Amino acid sequence: MLKGKKILLGVTGSIAAYKAALLVRALIKEGAEVKVIMTEAAKSFISPLTLATLSKHPVSVDLFKEDTWANHVMLGRWADIMLVAPLSCNTLSKMAAGLCDNLLLAVYLSATCPVMLVPAMDEDMWKHPATRKNMETLVSHGNIIVPVENGELASGLFGEGRMAEPETIIAALSRQGKNEGRLNGKKALVTAGPTYEHIDPVRFIGNHSSGKMGVAIARELFQCGAEVTLVLGPVSDTFVLDGLKVVHVQSAEEMFYACNRAFEKTDIAVMAAAVADYTPAVVAPEKIKKKEESWQMTLKKTPDILKSLGQKKTGKQLLVGFALETNNERENALSKLQQKNADIMVLNSLRDSGAGFGTDTNKVSVFDRNGGEKYFDLKSKAGVAKDIVDYIIEYIHV
Ligand code: PMT
Prior knowledge:
Helix content: 25-40%
CATH superfamily of the largest domain: CoaB-like
Strand content: 15-25%
Strand order of the largest sheet: 14-13-10-15-18-19-21-22
Number of domains: 2
Structural class: alpha/beta
CATH topology of the largest domain: Rossmann fold
CATH architecture of the largest domain: 3-Layer(aba) Sandwich
Largest sheet: 8 strands, mixed
Number of strands: 23
Radius of gyration: 24 Å
Bound molecules: ligand PMT
Distance between the termini: 18 Å
């Protein structure tokens, strides 16, 4: 799985840095190409000479050395993945804060590849509220975390905080990109964001969807080889949408037509948008003036996009819906799965903190029409998108 993969290993100042030598050796054995960067503190635990010899590449430590400047941007672009193992408490907090006072941090901040973090520290440091908060920030930034293990710590105490063993790290790396090319030749349709239902030229009915969840799914499907059309409602966040065909829409009706146009040629459709259920029956041509003490507006139902696609889907098409619930979550999600004739329903509940609208994280459960159910932890929306796409790939057996 790791043959030919370019891995940039960052080593920071922790007693677990001695495992970096075993890790580099194991990665090379797997056929990966490894370059190492270290913090100054890491050099107190393991020598750059050891890691340079094992990786067969010079080790970089300094951002500036005499009259030369290390090109941190190119290092981040060279790598297929940046792995930081061990990640000390100090570097972890600097990463969360976006500090940039050494080469490793400069590379981390400019890396365009996925980043995998393998923390290592004493249990009390690991459990400190500041570290907890920093970890949440790093997860929300899309980093992949290899969890700490339980066992004997450098302090002599036993508990959580040990760096994962090299075999565990290699297994986590191998899972990355396991779906590369699995969706080659497939066409995917994804909806994301809110819809705006105009009341008059200056007002609308909308909701808090940022588009982050749907965009993460579109990106993940694209990473796995699918040709992706993203039907995107009006969002204020700016996204990198390279490689996706994007159709911008405003209202539920516009989203309905865009999806129905694309659906015939679609193999996999994922409806992650938060579509308005009602729209004003009449849109005022001029700005409505404030006159009466109270004012009523008549709303009419919008077309149900998911349901309409469910009615026309063939046996070869896969339809995935989302359910955003506040109560009776499982029951409501299962009933939406049936009523809208979807194959898979992804449930997120507004009762779970960090889940749903606007956040960088989400917590989902997935149900399918064959009775399958899977419950996932709170993750970055990129991580949730990976889980959903993994589920889709397993479901359609490609
Ligand atoms: O965009 P983010 O800020 O990242 O937030 C993500 C999210 C919370 C919007 C997303 O994870 C999510 O839950 N999207 C669906 C929200 C929603 O409208 O849920 P619903 O239970 O009301 O709708 C059920 C399904 O029917 C959804 O797939 C929805 O896209 C679809 N629908 C709803 C109404 C309608 N008129 N047409 C539809 O197709």
